[in-house]
Every structure is written in structure tokens, then in C-alpha cells.
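Lab manual, section 2.4: Encoding a predicted structure.

Procedure: take the sequence of the chain (258 residues), apply the prediction step described in section 2.3, and record the output as C-alpha cells. A sample record is shown.
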Amino acid sequence: MKSRSMVGLVGYSLALMLFTAGLWAAGTPPVLSGLYVNKDHDCGRVEFMPDGKCFLKGCSGYHTATYRWEGDACVCKPDSEADDAVRLTRQGAGFVDVEGKHWVPHDSLVVMPWTNLVPVTFVVVDDNWFPYQLLGYQNDPDNYGQHTPAKYSLEGLRTAVCPLPEKVYLPSEKARAQCEALLKTLLTTHSTDVMAGEAGQLVTRLFVTSTWALKRRKLEKGLAGGKVTDPFAVKIADMHLPHFVWIMEVSPSCDRQA
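Recorded output:
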């Protein structure tokens, strides 16, 4: 029964692909659905909905829009009059915009870092299902939700969210903005060559840690043999700080490449 079901599923998928290709070849654009990204620009992405709506993302943020077909071109008109329309001309499995940049299905650019690891199965705790469900690659018979339209699989992952401890009250974007503002102030009072070395460029890394871990690390660096080797590190260890703190490491790019 399982083999027949798989054959039936493959046959249905193949028939759907041929039907869609036939619509395109006949000049009748199919209903769009899915996420397309601009290969040449990190900000460019558009997600089409079957009801004629779409979501555009540029460097200024997300915009709701509607789309319509004009021959071989799909024109996405933002709901806001202040935003310009985006014209995408179909090409193969994707599109080309007016600047000649290619928009391709998001799935075609997804590279799973664990692809070469066999077998690969995640244990998932989904609040819509019983706990400890299994999630692997497409067509894995152990994947949960196989009898639903969702067809969950590792290839369907789009975004990873890292939960922070509950006592981290400052969002990461605000922490980065404050750290970068302080860094710019320091760069006006210190020589860039001294801070960045010969490369003249700085590399930053933002992370959150506990005050206890930070002070322990600073004391390990600031004390040796009962003597103070780094007064600044010892000063940090003596500060009154909240339970968790954001840290921005700053180093010359040449140190990162070494």
C-alpha cells in the first residue's frame, strides 16, 4: 500500500509539473505561489499568494502588494502609493526584473549544511502535535504531518529563531545600534590604524552572555600569579552589571583571516 501511495504521489506531482509547464508554454500564466529571492541583492524577495496578493521585501522593509499579469510579466503593485511597482518577466523557473537581475525560487538556493550527514533526523517539539516528532528530508516516511497538506521536511525550513533568556530585556538590534554608536565615538578619538592594524578594517561580533561568565573570563585574563596584568579587565570584573549583558567584540580583519 505504501509503495502504491508513493507511486501515486510521484505521479500526481509529475502531472502537476507537466500541467503547469503546459500553461506557461501555452501563454496562460499559472497562479503564483511561493517565495522568490533576488540572487543579486540580499534585500530583494517576494512571496506570492494564490489569491493575487504578495509580500515584497526591499532594504526599507516589507510591503503588502497585489500582482497581475501583463503578457509574460508579473507586475507587483504595492498597496502604498509611495512605493514603486516591481515588474518581473518570467524566465525559466524564475523571473528577471527591469535591471536584468534574476529572481529564483527560494528552494533553489537553500543549501543544507547537514546534507552530507546520513542519516539526518531532527526531533521536533511542535505545539500543534504530540511532542518528540521526527523531521527528516523530503519523502522520509517518518516525517510527521505526512497526511496533511503541509508535508513537513527539512527542506521546508525557512527561518531559525534563537530564544534568549527571559532576563535579556534589550533586543539584539538595539544592542547592536548602541554598540556601533559607541564604536563610532571611539573611532573619532582613536587612530583607525592603531585599532584596525594594517588592513584598516574592523570586524565586529555581537553576542549575549551572563555577567558571571564575563567577569570570570576577565579575571582569568587580568590576574596572573596574584598580580594584576590587565587593570581594565579587573575593572570590568568589579562593575555592577545586570544578569545578562550584550558584548560586541571588535578586532582587525587581519586577525580574523589569520
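Check your result against the sample. Residues 110-161 form one domain.
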